[in-house]
Every structure is written in structure tokens, then in C-alpha cells.
Specification:
alpha+beta, HSP40/DNAj peptide-binding domain, four-stranded mixed beta sheet, 28% strand, elongated
Length: 317
Amino acid sequence: MEFKDYYKTMGVAKDATQDEIKRAYRKLARKYHPDVSSEKDAEKHFKEVGEAYEVLKDPEKRAAYDELGHQFKAGQDFRPPPGWDSGFEYSESGRGRAEDFGFSDFFESIYGRQQRPGGRQAGGRQGIHIRGEDHHAKVMIDIEDSYNGATRPITLRVPELTPDGHVETRNRTLNVRVPKGIRAGQQIRLAGQGGMGIGKGGNGDLFLEVQFQPHPRFRVEESDIYLDLPVAPWEAALGAKVKVSSPGGELDLKVPPQSQTGKKLRLKGRGLPGKTPGDFYVVLKIVNPPVTTEEDREAWRTLQKKFAFNPRTGAES
């Protein structure tokens, strides 16, 4: 999948105002409309222009697209980097369903297929009351914050349209309580922190979708936590008692004799906490000591003579 340059498709500069983008769209839509155009591949171009306009006309979509535009060029192989959109706050109406419009896989890979429910409205004696839209954002947290629970300041980027028609982002910082045991993909609801309501409609809510920051030692799969543990050949062969790090602190671990690389040792209930806590898995990886001296090499030769061992036995054709 290639990265698409929506500004090039529309024939506008990257700092174009929203009015300039609208005028460019009207001109190109007339030029390529399949019902009236005599241009070659008019229908294809018409769809490309429509997709570009769907993104650039909307401050929220445009701000997210511009974030990726700093990292990719038109025609470059494209896969959204993990967590690229974390910290962007967007409203429910800011994202339509890609399948509704027949847009490209590129569009869908960025914006997904979210619904477009909009705000809720009711009449009252003082006039019309409209509840503010709910807002959403993806946030990255540390595994330890889920394991222990925490309160953290989280800064979100909010796309806004300036009076002169340009798109800018402002930052707002919220003090957020991270519930103990929250899983990746679950949401934290902040009541009243979404879009502003009209009349007595009340503000919408803000939903923060949680994802985990990459960790130098641990990885999480649902509620289970994994650690790759290097062990020496003699620890794996003879068995050993070792100390291992976990998000909850140091743990004692017994390495069984005759262990092999890839063996998983399970510590039940030591994963993410919860009503049904996850498990903590230690995956063994045998690491050979460095061989730098003649004495080292002689020690390995002694082992070679001692054991009539071929690790490829049974694997050879």
C-alpha cells in the first residue's frame, strides 16, 4: 500500500486554508464528474478527489493526516506506525465510515470504520437543548501503570480551525486515573470532558482508549505478561534458582533441569490484576558465554569430547 499525497491530488499547498481547499474541490469535481466529464479515467479521478477532500475539509482528519505526512512521501510504502495517532482528540462526527464512501485501503488504514452517531437533541421550554458530542483519543500508558494503578497527567492534541481558515492543534492536559488492571483496547471515560453542549444538553464525555507503550523487557498479550529470560547453558542443563523482574517487583524462579530455549514457565496470577488475573510467563533463552581465550576454547572442546551429541539428529533429510 502506497502513501497518498492528498494535497497533490487537490492541487493545493500544504498550508492551504479550508476555503482554498473547498474551491479546489468544486473545480475538480466539475472537471471529473463522470456524468459530464470527457477526461480520461474521469471516474477514477473523481473518487480520488472525493477521498482527498473528505480528509482535508475536516480539521480533525487533516491534522491526523499531516502528522503522517511528516514521515512519508507520496508513493512510499505505507503502514501506519504503531501508536502514531495516540494523543489526538477527535469528535464522533469527525470520522465517517470508509465503507460508506468506497474509499481506499489507505484511507481506512488511517481512519478505520467508525460510526458517525452525532449529538443527541431534545426540545425544552427554554429552547433547543443539544448534548455535546462525545470525544475520543488513544493514549499510551506504561505496563506498570496498569499493574499498580496510577494517576497521570495526559496531554491531548485538539485540532481547531483558526479564524483565517487554517488548521492548528492546541494541547490540553488532564489528570487521569488509570484503573488497576486495565487492558489494551479498554477505555477510560471522563464524564463531561467531551464537546460542549447547547442549553441544558450538557457536555459530551471523553473516552480514552488505552494502549501500552513498548517495554524494554515485558510484553502483554491480553491479561498475560511475558518476559524473555537469558539463562546460561549450565543453568538450563542442571536447573537453577534465579531472580526475575516483574512489573510488581522481583520474583524467585526455579529453572527446571534439562530446560531448552523457548520453554515457558508460568507464574499463575502474576499478570495484569483483575477479577480473573492474568499470568506471568517467563520464556527461557539459552545464552552461551563468550569464547575469547584459548582456555575458553579448551573448556568447550572438553565438553565436545564428553558428550556424543548432535543437535540436528532427526532433523536432517
